[in-house]
Structure formats: C-alpha cells, structure tokens
Amino acid sequence: xxxxSYVVHIVDDEEPARKSLAFLLSIxxxxxxxxxxxxxxxxxxxxxxxxxxVTDLRMPDMSAIELxxxxxxxxxxxxxxxxxxxxxxxxxVSAMKAGAVDFIEKPFEDQTLIDAITRxxxxxxxxxxxxxxxxxLRARLDSLSDRERQVLSAVVSGLPNKTIAYDLDISRRTVExxxxxxxxxxxxxxxxxxxxxxxxxxxxxxxH
Length: 208
Hints:
Elements: E1 7-11, H1 15-27, E2 31-35, H2 38-44, E3 51-56, H3 64-73, E4 80-84, H4 89-97, E5 102-105, H5 110-121, H6 134-142, H7 146-156, H8 161-168, H9 172-186, H10 191-200
Parallel strand pairs: 1-2, 1-3, 3-4, 4-5
Helix pairs in contact: 7-9, 8-9
C-alpha cells in the first residue's frame, strides 16, 4: 500500500520520542497521528479505519501487550509495530504473540522503521509481505547444531548468557560463541531479527 493510503498512529508516553517519530514518518510520506498514552489510543481505536500502529513496548498506563490484548478483545486490532529497548525480548515476543506484526530494537535506523511499517501495512490489503522465504529460513535453522538450537531457544526466551550457561552446564564464553554462530548461520543482523525468525519458525522458548 502507498504510505498516503493509511494513517500511522504513534503511541509513546515520551513527547520527544513522539515528535521525532512523527517528523520522520511525515517527511517520508506517511499520514501520522500521535497519542500520549495507550489509553487514549484505545479510546479512539473503534472509530478508526486503515490504521497502522507504532507503539513503545513499555508505558506507564499499560504495556503494548496489554494494549494489543484489549484491542483484540474488542475486535479492532490494527497491524502493529512494537518499539523496544534492549532487554525486553520476552515482552516483545509476547507482544508478537498478542498480534504485533513486527518489533524493532532501539536504537534503529530510520529505514528499519519505515520497512517495518510497510510490512505491517500489507496486512491491510489482506496480504503479508515476507522478508525471507520460509524454506530458506528453515534451511538456516537446519544448519544449526543441537547445542546451537538449545541456545537459540534460550535466547528467544530472553535469558542472559549467565543463565543459559548455568542451564546448559557450559561456560559463558561458550554461550557467546554459540550466539555468534547462530547469528551468522541465521544471517540475522540483530537480536530482534533473530527473534522474528524464531517466531516464524515456531522455535520453542526455553521457559514460559
């Protein structure tokens, strides 16, 4: 879909972040509306159409996960991109399971956000834009050793290297080597991208 055929709603409790995102997307050709809280967007959502949502993961009134769950409950869940800080992998995974299309980690390149919104907007047409062929992703997963798969499962759960090392009875340095190998074999440019791949491939998390 063309950027001017739908409205991107930004939800972030921090005004500088809202203004920065709104400026970026506006000069990129998107129609933008901003909301200072998840509560304000939730109230407006039933009256909106042709909407994509960009929301911060952690907010004072409710998290993005809670927002998506409430939107889903009333049947007005728009295609959503989650913005997350480091260390929020478990919550980001939960958000995607709650209906988010994508999530990106801070700091991110401008084009990364624009691409994520474009992928999300494809849902409005009833199509899903995929960044990689599922068979190719499966082949990459199949290239991992059994131990690397165990580490990947733990990483998707958001476990720190120290905990992964303890659980698997290996050194922290070995975990770091496995993580590097996994990133290379899966051709993931970031942890967020690796987690997206794992979700697509339905890689089981180590803990729930």
